[in-house]
From TrEMBL:
Zn(2+) 2 binds at residues 128, 161, 190. Pfam families: PTE. This is Phosphotriesterase. The keyword Metal-binding applies. Keywords: Hydrolase, Metal-binding.
Length: 302
């Protein structure tokens, strides 16, 4: 059965609704000291604000070992009335003081997708991996190899962090070329951080989903180029592959701290997209595309 795996169970994709396709409720990294997202009340308030703006679903891309607080997610889903999707997977090595054994990564990912995070928590519905800056190191290759094995075993989609938006072509060559993951199961993240229209069109022709996220990082070529990038891709016939996310990674970026936060997608970006491309395309990007991108034909694992 085709479904989106949320923290409260499998969901008919038609019920997902307006979706923040890439964000973080909880996150901890040695690269962001003192900026942890670790406050349950603040996470709950952000979800309330997003729902008040018209949001109905949030996909948390925080992977293994980065303070994702998976046990809190079902309660937050129930209290907010939003559909929440959790992630398994592994980020770049620099985000960890201690890494799990790389030889057992596929088994770890499969367990978190099918049994539950931590063995008794909610099941993940996404595998998060990461490339490097303009290339893939050995850690990235081994992590993506494990992610591909987990995809083939379960059907789960794979979301990719691209460092400053780079190395997406190399990721596709590895995941879809060598490791035979269908492009429609791959979500390429942070492409707004490297706003090269020619590369975006090349990536779109692969059939993968293209995620543009991070209005909390206005210094990273996000907002002021984002609309032009989306218009170019939609007008080239790739509107059905576009995704939007907030990618809130610090407490200061939350709406409750006067940052853009999750509601920004709907209060600021959506009206601009609708004005440029029409209400139908805005709804396509925020509602219908996530419903397809995060859906999988989940396979039983014995």
């Amino acid at each position: 059965m085709t479904a989106i795996r949320t923290v409260l169970g499998d969901l008919d994709p038609a019920e997902l609704g307006v979706c923040d396709a890439h964000d973080h409720l909880f996150l901890r990294s040695p690269l962001l000291p003192g900026q942890e997202l670790d406050d349950v009340a603040a996470a709950a308030a952000e979800l309330v604000a997003f729902r008040a703006a018209g949001g109905q679903a949030v996909v948390q891309w925080t992977p293994y070992g980065m303070g994702r607080r998976a046990a809190e997610l079902p309660r937050l889903a129930r209290s907010s009335g939003l559909h929440l999707v959790a992630a398994t997977g592994l980020h770049r090595a620099a985000h960890y003081d201690r890494l799990p054994g790389l030889d057992s990564l596929a088994e770890l990912f499969i367990t978190e997708l099918t049994v539950g995070i931590g063995g008794d928590g909610p099941r993940a519905g996404l595998i998060k991996v990461a490339g490097g800056f303009h290339g893939l190191d050995e850690h990235a290759r081994r992590t993506m190899t494990a992610a591909a094995a987990a995809h083939h075993a379960t059907g789960a989609p794979i979301g990719v962090h691209h460092e400053v938006g780079t190395a997406a072509t190399e990721v596709l060559d590895l995941l879809c070329g060598q490791l035979e993951v269908p492009p429609g199961s791959v979500l390429l993240g942070h492409l707004n951080r490297f706003p090269d229209e020619r590369i975006h069109l090349e990536l779109a022709r692969s059939g993968a989903y293209l995620a543009f996220d991070g209005p909390s990082r206005a210094n990273a070529a996000t907002d002021w180029r984002l609309l032009d990038v989306l218009v170019a891709l939609a007008e080239a016939g790739h509107g059905e592959q576009l995704l939007l996310g907030g990618d809130t990674v610090t407490a200061a970026a939350r709406s409750s701290a006067d940052g853009p936060g999750m509601p920004f997608l709907l209060t600021n970006l959506r009206p601009r997209i609708a004005a440029a491309l029409g209400e139908e395309t805005a709804d396509l990007i925020l509602r219908h595309n996530p419903a397809r991108a995060f859906a999988a034909d989940w396979k039983p694992v014995h």
